[in-house]
Amino acid sequence: MKASTLLMIAAMTATPLLGSDLQQAANSMTLTELRPGSTHLPMPKIPGAKVEILGADYEQIIASHGNIRPVLSETPVNISFRVSKDGEQVISKDYELILKPAKEATGNPKPNVIPEILQWAGSTGNFKLSDNATLYCNNAALAAQIAADFREVTGKNIQLANHAREASIVLKEGKKKHSSDTEESYTMVVNADKIHIDAPSWKGVYWGTRTLLQILRQTGGSVPCGKAVDMPRYELRGFMLDIARTPHPISYIKDVIRTMSWFKMNDLHLVINNNYIFHENYVDAGRDPFKESYSAFRLESDMKGADGTPLTAQDLFYTKKEFMELVEYAKEHNVNIIPEFDTPGHALSFTRVRPDLIYKGKMNHEKRRCEMLDAANPETVTFVGKVFDEYLVKDEKLGAAVFENCPVVHVGADEFYGEKEDYRKYADGLMRHVLDRGYTPRIWGSLSSKPGKTPVVSKGVQMNLWSPGWMKAWEAIDLGYDVINTNDGALYIVPFANYYRMDKNHKWLYANWKPNVVGNEVLPAGHPQLLGATFAVWNDMTDAKHSGYAPYDVWNSIKESVEILSQKMWGKEKMPHDMAAHKELAARIGAAPFCNPLYKWKSRETVNITPALTPQKLGLPALGPNYHLTMELELASAPEGQEQVLLSAPEGKLIAVMKDGTVGFRRDDTLEFSFGAKLPVGKKVKLELIGKPENTQLLIDGQPVGQMVLTTYLDADNGFSKRTKNVRSTFVLPLEVLGESLLGKVYSMQITPSAPETK
Questions:
Q1: What would the mean pLDDT of 639-668 be, rounded to a whole number?
Q2: Residues of the domain holding 226
Q3: 257 and 225 both lie in a single domain
Q4: According to the 3-state scheme, what is the secondary structure of 272-314?
Q5: Are residues 386 and 246 in the same domain?
Q6: Same domain? 498 vs 525
Q7: Which of 589, 624, 651 is the last residue before a domain boundary?
Q8: Residue 243 in 3-state DSSP?
Q9: Can you tell me the distance from the alpha carbon of 493 to that of 298, in angstroms, rounded to the nearest whole number?
Q10: DSSP label at 373?
């Protein structure tokens, strides 16, 4: 939590500490029990020492000079102290204060949302959302966005009003209600005839609308009368997504943004470059990982090697314009995008452009040298700095820097296996480059494992605390870094791996995890250098370990993690429900407006189509598992090497004839699959596709045919042939165009949004 002040109240006497050391004394202080409505904090005292407030997790409530902001309802606040005596200084444990209102409200109970409303004073009655409800907001862009969200959630056509007095819902950015309000704080007052949401900034207003919409989603249009005062416990509430080792279409990232925003999460860290890390699989098989291991840099770049090797990934990448628009889209939803270029390790995309800059010093994991940039060579910082400058400096064609609206830029710098001083010099040089460009650098903590004499800049730098073996939390604090809890043991997900499976421990996470506990170290919950926490999805299982899973298959792990951690980082540390009640509440709240990442149809009715001449525009939305597609068709010819697309949409393509002649499909994450079977030419057949999560099956004339093959990646366990065992073949059915390039005829088509049982 970023604190703005330290409360310095001295309690100086000549009395000694009576044999107790300073730390024990700091952790054994007696705090005066606060009376209801207290407005000032009586300071604890230690004879002979100076006691000052270090910070509170809700610094908006306990402000400078010991002032306490009045609360509407009982509110727990954790507070810690800095204690000093005779040149020695220690930090106390957290003390929990229970703040109580001067008068308890006796009206409507607090409505349940995620994250929980911090303070609520209920009155009587309810606001009913009428069919002719109106919304007033003097921010035109936000007004249109919120009105659309209201229509999506409530089904009612909310109209925009010209004046606040004419509206049933009023959104207003105004002066602070209290001096300690932050830009994310908001107040919501619900009367029987009108709802007011006020905040010091439009961020706070937006968060207030998420609360209101979640209530309306559960009640169908009714809101209990009362007053809410709400604010975040931590300023940074994040999620990190590795989009480098598994391609992710922008549409998916937008679903992530909408979902984070729905639950008041605000920091989306995107890993732009990375590579397959198990290079030893190739080396041990007598192959060259420099040439064969998978790597990707997902942004359009002008950088190319002397031999023409492009930095930009060739399977899926985002243009600079697309990424700028994505950043702006996130900003509209109160989410900051933090792009990461990871060097000097995990940098195979970079070493392929500059093989002369592969690390030459001593290192661990020799078989992984191909991905290590030469941190000892000053030219390496210059080279990587030029790549960063493509996005940090104004692009004349675009009229702005690509990262102009990214407040923080991540420089990576994790898991470098070379010499300590080389690492320190490189990390310092790259972070100073980012600072010089006017951005805040963020880095993976590694300095505990890389001690040395070379100074590394810390002022104005954020650090992910991800592994106690690489970086100790208290050491990072003492060095001056603003820190983010990203502890791997608690907060990492590696999909379909046998390690780092936070998604398998949600019940434990809900009951036990605390944002201020980093591995085996405990920081004060309100430490001014503790920004918050971030969970992470790492796609280690790529390349020779890839089973074919789609971003689709990871969605529920992401969504459920967001639902839990948003409560922990915005709301009270002690959960208001048990896990079962939390899951029931999450189900009632449902998905964010305009968010349908699993491509579910509202209707469960079968759709029958009698095609005209192909290609034919169907204009149907894509359909995710479970589904059953039935078609009668006849293939007229199958020229060798000529692809024939049967169904297509932005979500992918169902291919009647792939270049090898087999039936298969290609997804919007660029992964390609073959059923290993061919359609007959000149014969009318019945084709069926049964789509289930992780398993898509082809039937021809009622009989299952072929064997699913993941054609995109090789399989190390199978001697680097195409993967055929345990293939996860989730396929979202594309239904925009029928017969895009089909040489033949489709006689009939039937789509059922439920799949039959299969053996």
A1: 97
A2: 119-230
A3: no
A4: CEEECCCCHHHHHCCCCHHHHCCEEECECCCCECCCCCECCCC
A5: yes
A6: yes
A7: 589
A8: coil
A9: 21
A10: B
How does residue 216 score in pLDDT terms, banded at 50, 70 and 90?
A: very high
Task: Determine, yes or no, domain membership for 637.
Answer: yes
Both tokens of residue 694? 């992780």
Distance of alpha carbon 184 from alpha carbon 190, whole angstroms = 19
Q: Which one-letter DSSP state was computed for residue 369? A: G
Q: Is the residue at 515 inside a domain?
A: yes
Helix (H, G, I), strand (E, B) or coil at 474: helix
pLDDT band at residue 572 using 50, 70 and 90 as cut-offs: confident
User: What total of structural domains would you count in the chain?
Assistant: 4
Reduced to 3 states (helix: H, G, I; strand: E, B; else coil), residue 90 is strand
Predicted confidence (pLDDT) per residue in 386-397, tens digit: 999 999 999 999
CA distances from 33 to 44, 76, 98 (A): 11, 13, 8
* 269 and 200 in a common domain: no
Domain end residue (candidates: 184, 202, 230): 230
Cα–Cα distance list, 543 to 245, 293, 491, 717 (Å): 8, 7, 24, 12
Per residue in 608-624, pLDDT tens?
A: 999 988 899 999 999 99
CB atoms within 10 A of CB 513: 21
pLDDT per residue as tens digits for the range 147-191: 999 999 999 999 999 999 999 999 999 876 676 778 999 999 999
Residues 329, 465: one domain?
Answer: yes
- CATH number for 630: 2.60.120.200
| Residues 346, 538: Cα–Cα separation, whole Å | 13
- Report which secondary-structure segment, H or E, holds 383: helix 378-392
Same domain, yes or no, for 272 and 194?
no
Give dist(CA 381, CA 379) in Å, integer.
Answer: 6
Which among 725, 678, 348 is positioned nearest to 548, based on CA atoms? 725
> To the nearest whole number, what is the mean pLDDT of the chain?
94
- The per-residue pLDDT for range 578-617, each reduced to its tens digit, is 999 999 999 999 999 999 999 999 999 999 999 988 899 9
9-18, 537-546, 566-575, 715-724: lowest mean pLDDT where? 9-18
Domain membership flag for residue 596: no
In a domain, residue 660? The reply is yes
Active site residue ranges = 274, 346, 415
For residue 444, give the nearest of 434, 431, 454 by alpha carbon. Answer: 431
Contact 135, 143 (CB under 8 A): yes
Contact present, 99 and 120 (Cβ < 8 Å): no
CATH value at residue 171: 3.30.379.10
Asked if residue 640 and residue 565 are part of one domain, the reply reads: no
Same domain, 134 and 80: no
